Structures are given as C-alpha cells and as structure tokens.
Amino acid sequence: MHGLRLGREDAFDIIFAELYGTLCLFAANITGHQSVAEDIVGEAFIKIWERKTDFIHFLSLRAFLYTTVRNASLDWLRKTQARDKRLRAALPIFEQPEKTSLEQLITAETYRELYSAISTLPAQCRDVIHLSYLERKSLREVAVTLNIAVGTVKSQKSRGLVLLKKKLKYFLYLFF
To answer: Do residues 84 and 54 both lie within one domain?
Structure first.
C-alpha cells in the first residue's frame, strides 16, 4: 500500500493482479456480460490510481473497489436494460440497505477464494468451468469453443466441481 501511495506502478500491478479477476467475476454476475464487467473493473482501477493517496489499508481499498464495481454494474443494468427481466430480478436483491463493511469483506473474500481455486484447476478443467459457469455457455458451446467432445466437457466439468469442492471445503466450513 505504501508503494501505491508513492505512485509506484509495480505496487499497483500487484494489487491489480490480486483483485482484477475476482472483481470481473463479481461484475459479470451482476451484468451478465463479461466484456462489460471488464470495462467496469478497468474504470474502477483507474479511480484507484487517481485516488491512490487516499488509501492507507488494503481492506479499505478492496472495499472501495467492490462498492464501486457493484454500483457501476447496477448503473449499467439500469441504463441499458431498464425493462429487462434480469433487472427486475436483480434490483430487489441489490437495493437492500447498504451492506456493512463486514458483509462486503465476506463477499469479496468469497469471490477471491472461488476465483483463486478455479485458477488452480488443471487447464482443461479450468477452461470448462470458466466457460460453463462464469461465461454461462452451454455444453455444446463449450465443446465448440474448446474443440472437444461434449462428453469430454461433461467429464471435465464434473472433475472440476469435485476438485473445487475439495479445495474450498475448509473455506466453506468456516463460512457456514
């Protein structure tokens, strides 16, 4: 954090590498669009760089990023899909009273742990899980994208879920 406050790009790069993927997943879950999520997260990191001297602790920076990304994602939904079924379903969930810092931290850590666990999967499992769950592609779309058989997609998806359960069992135990 000290390096970021001094304007060191290498410190910013470390923070970016730690949080970018998780924030994209968070935004994509709200917007339903990976490319929109990436744009929103990119803008949030620009705000961090512009306000780099405002953050003393990593936790406050992370909370700021999640709040910024959540609000920007909801704004995008309101502006571009005002009558969309997704918006009607999502707004009641997100228009609840502001989450406490602890709730935001738990949400952030949950996404970070999940994204981290997915990144440790074997390459083909990771690709299948990413396409199936994060990009919400069908079995056939995943098979075409990866140039593999639908049966292989099914088995890699099953294998990936088993591995994720093993990797996240202690985290889930603590969470519940």
So the answer is: yes
